[in-house]
Design goal:
42% strand, 4 helices, 170 residues, eight-stranded mixed sheet, alpha+beta
């Protein structure tokens, strides 16, 4: 297993417990929805990168081939991003304490830079991570095939602002 750090800009961060993607927008009994339900949802965040940062991420071990390589995407304006994911529950792991199949992984660890050093993120006082927040994501990468979001360090926080109904929302 390798540890890889990738710096970029956060978009659509759903990284707190209770806010994970449960696939409710997908058709009932679809393969994707069944998979998301089997892992009790996943934490997701789009991480926008410069082309140099993408090259470095790939060189450091973030996969760009095969099924996981499909997590590299481009938006409508041609900007590159990586879809960071973390399962809430991993049915393939075995609990070390109980020997039972399946382990709750929980959300990624989230921290922030402060004048006193790195401190834990407090959702209640710090708020949600808004679009365009500058972050560093720590990944665990296995066999160059699987990259799991382990932690997020918020370097520059942009507060989350829900879309207003007056701005064309439905």
């Amino acid at each position: 297993m390798a540890t890889v750090y990738v710096e970029g800009t956060a978009q659509y961060a759903r990284v707190f417990e209770g806010d994970q993607d449960l696939g409710k927008n997908l058709p009932e009994d679809s393969d994707q929805r069944v998979k998301l339900e089997s892992i009790q949802g996943q934490y997701v965040m789009n991480l926008f990168l410069t082309s140099e940062a993408k090259k470095k991420a790939i060189a450091d071990g973030i996969p760009n081939k095969g099924m996981v390589g499909q997590l590299w995407k481009e938006d409508d304006e041609g900007n590159t991003y990586y879809k960071c994911t973390r399962k809430h529950f991993n049915p393939k792991f075995v609990d070390r304490n109980t020997g039972e199949q399946g382990v709750v992984m929980g959300p990624p660890v989230i921290v922030k830079d402060t004048p006193e050093g790195v401190k834990p993120w407090d959702k209640e006082t710090d708020g949600l991570i808004g679009n365009d927040s500058k972050v560093v994501v720590k990944f665990n990468v296995w066999d160059g095939k699987i990259a799991e979001m382990l932690a997020i360090k918020v370097v520059e926080h942009v507060p989350y602002e829900p879309a207003s109904m007056n701005e064309g929302g439905f």
